[in-house]
């Protein structure tokens, strides 16, 4: 009887925790923040990618599924939520695709250029930093947000206080990411102390299990993990890079890039961007406004 009571207690506790975690996590439920009918009779003259989507009757968007506040999948409700997801939906809607015509495809950091170049996804929205190296293989619309590289540590950590304190510490990041490359290039710790995984979730797991001392990536991502476990995890130091987020597109589809930039520009001006930010990232981050678009 006692055991049973304990088991029930544990179960209730676990459920409470789950509900709590969900409520506390930014992003909320699965319905779009911007819930307007999809645009009709959309034309994007000269865009092979747009033609492909139209033929298919569906848009395939590359996303992340484990970044709370940005791109997160909830298996219970079978929905995606977060700032990136809302931006992805807004673009889809302006291209004429309602939420039921969207197929999300999870693509990790190291696989993005390949997925876009192969045409596995029509476009990609997932904490994807615009840089010259990536521009060799894909195109970017945006930026639609600017993050900065940060550090996530265990709550009781005292030795890791910022970028300069990483020597001799084990630092985890995602393979193929700009933060991992920066730690290597700037030799912030020794090569054998730099640990790469496919996802940041794996890194956070390593941090909890004391296999690493810090997780490094964009502060926007780290804040989402910290908000889920404020008693266990915290961010330290000042952001030490600029990570302008772009929407990844096929390299030569200038017509679609221009169109997506128009959609972003419009959302910056009419308050839609702000509405999306406030309902998602803004909940665990600090107040922010839209960035300056960089058309090319
Ligand atoms: N924004 C950085 C990047 O694009 C880190 C986040 C990520 O891996 O998605 O590499």
At a glance:
By secondary structure, the protein is of the alpha/beta class. The protein folds into two domains: 16-147 and 244-284, 3-Layer(aba) Sandwich (D-Maltodextrin-Binding Protein, domain 2); 149-236, Periplasmic binding protein-like II (D-Maltodextrin-Binding Protein, domain 2, 3-Layer(aba) Sandwich), CATH 3.40.190.10. It is built from ten helices and 13 strands.
Order of helices and strands: HHEEEEHEHEHEEEHEHEHEEHH
User: Outline, from the CA principal axes?
Assistant: globular
The CATH topology of the largest domain comes to: D-Maltodextrin-Binding Protein, domain 2
Our estimate of the beta-strand percent is 15-25%
- Stretches where pLDDT falls below 50 for ≥5 residues? 1-29
* The first-level CATH class name of the largest domain: Alpha Beta
Bound molecule kinds, no repeats: glutamic acid
| Major sheet attributes | 5 strands, mixed
Number of helices: 10
* Gap from first CA to last CA: 69 Å
**Helical content class:** 25-40%
The CATH homologous superfamily of the largest domain is termed Periplasmic binding protein-like II
In angstroms, what is the radius of gyration?
Answer: 20 Å
Number of distinct beta strands: 13
- Which CATH-level-2 architecture of the largest domain? 3-Layer(aba) Sandwich
Structural class of the helix and strand makeup? alpha/beta
How many domains? The number is 2
Query: What spatial order of strands do you see in the largest sheet?
Result: 10-9-11-8-12
Average pLDDT value?
Answer: 90
